[in-house]
Amino acid sequence: MSEAGATGRVLLNARPIPASSGAGNGLVDIAIDETGVVRQVTDSSPADRGREGIDLHGAYISRGWIDLHTHIYYGATDISIRPNAAGMATGVTTLVDAGSSGEASFAGFREYIAGPAQEKIYAFLNLGSIGLVACNRVSELADIRSIDIDRTLRVVQENRDIICGIKVRASHVILGSWGITPLLIGKKVARMVGLPLMVHIGEPPPLLDEILPALDPGDIITHCFNGKAGGNIADDEVILAVATEAHKRGILFDVGHGGASFSYRVARKALERGLLPWTISTDLHMQSVNGPAWDLATTMSKLYSLGMDLEDIVHAVTDHSASSIGRQGGQDSRWLSVGQLADFTVFETASARIAVSDSEGSTETLDKVILPRYALRGSALVAAHSRVEMLAARSGYQE
């Protein structure tokens, strides 16, 4: 793949996924001007050989990938990573921080993280005022003094352009014996501001049996495939039935892999029951970025090897994620159109034999992987890679 000029660029022989209307042979050429706006989309032809531009050689191009669950408030919490460690260099053009900041520290997140980042940044605001300053060492939801509803409402109203919802970590590690009360307060605040609630699930209490019925369609359960005893959707047939009902009525299941929240065993059982995740995300932070989550492409590859359809995976990290945060989504075949600001990810798939673990230490051999090649946002183009390729260098994979 060749380099592009600095005053605009042409992408040659790209394969849109989902398929773009009008792509006769499945491949298109895309002309992007110096301001980052798409100016022309045409069918590729043999005459393109030798034409100046970046020849993608049939690699896929999709809407830019969105990672719905990250922790990127670097320096302000003890788990957050820099945005560029999870962003365009790994194929991701939009990052959503999942509750690193509460109302007391959101001004810093906006100025020092969202402002300078090359990626587009959104955030779920933590219900707990202090956010994840000392994650799992100092609870952000120790008791009612941890929540200031008036200040939280004000911060949301002042930052609606980037705040996309409210985040509550509803597990024993955070809440102690407080139970479901913080979740109910979070649900009330989310309704008041007209935004979804993202709920971290894990060690009970509260029980999933209590959590799921309290949610509205459009609310998000993150860590949906965690394997924690008493807190996962595959614990028993009763909770599987409750999860299935919630899934059917529009509760959105998000992967949120993380360092301790993804189980191959639970994911396989859920997929067998038709409980597909609505969104695929990493929960990237200091304890997951160097394994077991690694990056979004590796997390996608785990679902791909477990049998999830490639197009469903692409929807999960593009239009599904966009609609989950109230931004433009929808499965529209005209997503690749003239006049829009470029926001694309270029990637390939490959056969593989790569041993990769989940959050419980169980290992699966991935037989196929998803490999990002470029991320484009506006006039910026960044060569992208997946950390699974580092693993592949040890184990080997075939294109």
SSE topology:
Layout: E1 8-16, E2 28-33, E3 38-43, E4 54-55, E5 60-63, E6 65-70, E7 92-98, H1 106-114, E8 120-126, H2 149-158, E9 163-170, H3 172-175, H4 181-193, E10 197-201, H5 208-211, E11 220-222, H6 237-248, E12 252-254, H7 264-272, H8 296-305, H9 310-317, H10 319-324, E13 343-357, E14 363-377, E15 380-383, H11 388-395, E16 397-398
Parallel strand pairs: 1-4, 1-5, 6-7, 7-8, 8-9, 9-10, 10-11, 11-12
Antiparallel strand pairs: 1-2, 2-3, 5-13, 13-14, 13-16, 14-15
Can you describe this structure?
By secondary structure, the chain is α/β, with parallel strands linked by helices. The chain contains eleven helices and 16 strands. The strands form two sheets. Strands 1, 2, 3, 4, 5, 13, 14, 15 and 16 form a nine-stranded mixed β-sheet that branches. Strand 2 and strand 3 (38-43) form a beta hairpin. The longest helix has 13 residues, at 181-193. It is globular and about 70 Å long. The two termini are 15 Å apart. Residues 1-6 have low confidence and may be disordered.
Main sheet makeup = 9 strands, mixed
- The count of β-strands is 16
Q: What's the SSE pattern?
A: EEEEEEEHEHEHHEHEHEHHHHEEEHE
Kindly estimate the percentage of residues that lie in beta strands according to DSSP. 25-35%
Which class best fits the helix and strand makeup?
A: alpha/beta
In helices, the fraction of residues equals 10-25%
Please tell me how large the radius of gyration is. Answer: 21 Å
General form: globular
Helix count?
Answer: 11
Distance between the termini: 15 Å
Mean pLDDT: 93
Unreliable stretches covering 5 or more consecutive residues: 1-6
